[in-house]
């Protein structure tokens, strides 16, 4: 069995600044419609939710061993929540291709935030 992990931490104000100054151009480049709908529904906590998802995309891309490069786009990594609110990851495009090459896998994702920071930790487990 192999385990790949990635972690990322980001200042929530950095994401707030990008959303406030660059608006929809930044938002629509980085986040999927589902992520936008989720974050916007969070009202006062929307910037924390956006920041946590941004950190998750970075953490997953690090666990894949590429970062956001090598053809992986921000929207190739989507954070979704199950019915209880637990975060999960849906991959598409180049991110899905890289994951498929690893074999029989599972991905776990953990998100957290404080007033100032959001953090994400991703673990990819490859079974032999």
Walk me through this protein's architecture.
Belongs to the P-Pant transferase superfamily. AcpS family. It is an enzyme of class 2 (transferase). One of its GO terms (biological process) is fatty acid biosynthetic process. The protein has 128 residues and is an alpha+beta fold. It has one domain: 4'-phosphopantetheinyl transferase domain (Ribosomal Protein L22, Chain A). It is built from five helices and five strands, in the order βααααββαββ. It has a three-stranded antiparallel beta sheet. The chain has a two-stranded antiparallel sheet with strand order 2-3. Strand 2 and strand 3 form a beta hairpin. Helix 1 packs across helix 4 and helix 3 packs antiparallel against helix 4. The longest helix is centred in the middle third of the chain and has 18 residues. The chain is globular, with a radius of gyration of 14 Å.
